[in-house]
Amino acid sequence: MTLLFKVDEARGRAWKSLFETHAPDIDVRFWPDIGDPSQVRYFAAWQPPRQLHERFPNLQVIFATSAGVDQFDLGELPEPIKVVRMLDPGIAQGIVEYACFAVLSLHRQIPLYLHQQQAGRWQDHFLTPAAQRRIGVMGLGNLGVAVLQSLRAFNFQLHGWARSQKSIDGVQCHAGDDQLESFLSQCDILICLLPLTDDTRDILNARTLAALPKGASLINLGRGGHLKEDDLLQALDSGQLSHAILDVLNEEPPSPDHRFWQHPHVWLTPHVGAMTAPQSAFEVLLANIRRHQVGKPMQGLIKRDHGY
Ligand code: GLV
Q: What sequence ranges are listed for the domain D-isomer specific 2-hydroxyacid dehydrogenase NAD-binding (predicted)?
């Protein structure tokens, strides 16, 4: 029974030593040293190669080393192969840190103050109390919920939106297409933490951005595919939106002439909101392998019909 990883060398070394120390019974290999393909039961990667099931006839589970699984072509994989997303607590921690940094920067008008500094201007602006600032999170999975729970400490007005009705302490929850516009109309700062599926692709578009209050801001921590970038540029240029903080883009890295690079109202980071760390992810991965070995349900199992 082999667990085959396709990861970079440094991460590979960390995974190898964790398995050697804590689970020596599992034969762990690293792409391209695949060993006997018929022995590979588990495959772990962020970007898996195509046609995995043809190369590994006894493959049973693919473990994404990421929270999102949109990079997998689920339709191509035969049904019996299970796909599991990474529920590393280190990812949630990273996303919470990034979301808090971004929300507090926008809430405290840091983009404006940085422009003023560059212009040599010393000028204060009215400080909106947190209790009057409305923050909305799209996507109420483990990451969205963790972000909302952390933001509660600041006393913001919190809203959440998901495809089905959820209940989260201290958060006004909205559900489904019918409630999307009324949710958006109450978000001064909107955070996208949705999974990328056929239903959510391009969900941040001219129509939805126009539903936000004038001068609202956007934080995209989901996927570049959620956002129609030209529509965001128009919303920023017209003043409908005041600022965007983007950790994910349609094309990563964006082309050197992409307008986001130099846009005065866009902050970009290179998809670093969270990173799976072998140290914290190891326990989650091993627990899932042990569950699978004894026929128990794994945590983070993807529902094929939902795509997440
Ligand atoms: C990173 O984007 C992830 O999905 O973990």
A: 102-273
Amino acid at 130: A
Residuewise pLDDT in 10s, the chain (308 residues): 899 999 999 999 999 999 999 999 999 999 999 999 999 999 999 988 888 999 999 999 999 999 999 999 888 899 999 999 999 999 999 999 999 999 999 999 999 999 999 999 999 999 999 999 999 999 999 999 999 999 999 999 999 999 999 999 999 999 999 999 999 999 999 999 999 999 999 999 999 999 999 999 999 999 999 999 999 999 999 999 999 999 999 999 999 999 999 999 999 999 999 999 898 999 999 999 999 999 999 999 999 888 89
Atom number, ligand 1, closest to the C-alpha of residue 86: 5
Report residue 130 as tokens. 């947190």
With a 6 A CB cut-off, is 91 part of the ligand 1 pocket?
yes
Q: Give yes or no for residue 67 CB within 6 A of ligand 1.
A: yes
The pTM score is 0.95
| Helices of type H across the chain | 9-22, 52-55, 89-107, 110-118, 142-151, 180-184, 206-211, 229-238, 259-262, 278-293
68 within ligand 1 shell (Cβ under 6 A):
yes
Cis geometry, peptide bond prior to residue 48 (ω within 30 degrees of 0): no
CA–centroid distance, residue 118 to ligand 1 (Å) = 34
The amino acid sitting at 204 is L
**CA 66 – CA 14 distance, rounded (Å):** 16
Ligand 1 pocket member 66 (CB < 6 A): yes
Which is the closest atom of ligand 1 to the Cα of 66? 5
Residues tagged active-site = 223, 271
Q: How many angstroms is it from 63 CA to the middle of ligand 1?
A: 13
Q: Could you give all domains of the chain from N- to C-terminal order, each with its CATH number?
A: 2-88+276-293 (3.40.50.720), 90-268 (3.40.50.720)
